[in-house]
Amino acid sequence: MLADYHVHTEYSDDSTYCMEHVITDAIRLGLEEICFTDHVDYGVKWDWDSGQEIKYRNGEPLANVDYPRYMEEIKKMQALYGSKIRIRTGLEFGIQTHTIPMFRSLYHRYPFDFIILSIHQVNDQEFWTYPFPNVKPLIEEILKTVITDGKGIEVNTSSYRYGLSDTTPSREILKLYKALGGKIITIGSDSHRPEHLGTYIKETKELLKELDYTHFCTYERMVPIFHPL
C-alpha cells in the first residue's frame, strides 16, 4: 500500500504543479492513494474572496486556496481517475493561536478527508526567520494532547531531499510518540514539484518498522484507516 498524504498543487501559493499532472504522475509511480493538502495560512495570506488586495512575492500570489475551484477540481479528478487511484480531499492549515476561529469556520465549510495542522508562523512572522526553540517537556505535552484528542502525526519525507541529518520529526520524537501510546502516523512527501511526489515513502515505512511501529494511516472523512507497514 503506497500513499502520499502531503501533496501540493498550483492551488498553493508556493507550487505550480497542475493537479491533473500530479494524479497522472502518481498513477505512473504506482501510488494507490494521494491526499491533496494545499496551503492555508490565515494571518499572513488572504482568501481570494476576502475583498483585500492580494500581494505577490516572486511573481506568485500570497493567497490561500481558492476553495470553490479547488473542491470542484478534486471532484472532477475523482470522477476521471477514481478507478485508478484514490484521491482524498485535504488542506494544510498553517495555524496560529489567534487564527484558530478562522480555521474552525473553514473546516466546517467543506467535507474534508484529512487536515494537516502545521506551524508556519508565530505572531504573523514566518517561523523560520525567528529563533523559536523546541524543548522536550513541551514536545511531550503536545504529543500527549495529540494522543488524547485521537489525532496523529506525520512523517514528512522532505527531510531526505533537503539533506537533513535526521527525519522530520526526528527519530527521538517518533520514539517518544510511540512510548506515550501514539499510533496514528501518516507519511507525506510534501511535494511541490514532480520530482518530489512519492519520494522516500518506502524508506520511511522501513524506518517506522525499525522503530517498532506496525501500521501507518490514510484517512476518509477525517477517520484514520490503519494499514500494515
From TrEMBL:
<dbReference type="GO" id="GO:0005737">
    <property type="term" value="C:cytoplasm"/>
</dbReference>
<protein>
    <recommendedName>
        <fullName>Histidinol-phosphatase</fullName>
        <ecNumber>3.1.3.15</ecNumber>
    </recommendedName>
</protein>
<dbReference type="InterPro" id="IPR004013">
    <property type="entry name" value="PHP_dom"/>
</dbReference>
<dbReference type="InterPro" id="IPR010140">
    <property type="entry name" value="Histidinol_P_phosphatase_HisJ"/>
</dbReference>
<dbReference type="Pfam" id="PF02811">
    <property type="entry name" value="PHP"/>
</dbReference>
<comment type="similarity">
    <text>Belongs to the PHP hydrolase family. HisK subfamily.</text>
</comment>
<dbReference type="GO" id="GO:0000105">
    <property type="term" value="P:L-histidine biosynthetic process"/>
</dbReference>
<keyword id="KW-0368">Histidine biosynthesis</keyword>
<comment type="pathway">
    <text>Amino-acid biosynthesis; L-histidine biosynthesis; L-histidine from 5-phospho-alpha-D-ribose 1-diphosphate: step 8/9.</text>
</comment>
<dbReference type="GO" id="GO:0004401">
    <property type="term" value="F:histidinol-phosphatase activity"/>
</dbReference>
<feature type="domain" description="PHP">
    <location>
        <begin position="4"/>
        <end position="127"/>
    </location>
</feature>
<keyword id="KW-0028">Amino-acid biosynthesis</keyword>
<dbReference type="InterPro" id="IPR016195">
    <property type="entry name" value="Pol/histidinol_Pase-like"/>
</dbReference>
<keyword id="KW-0378">Hydrolase</keyword>
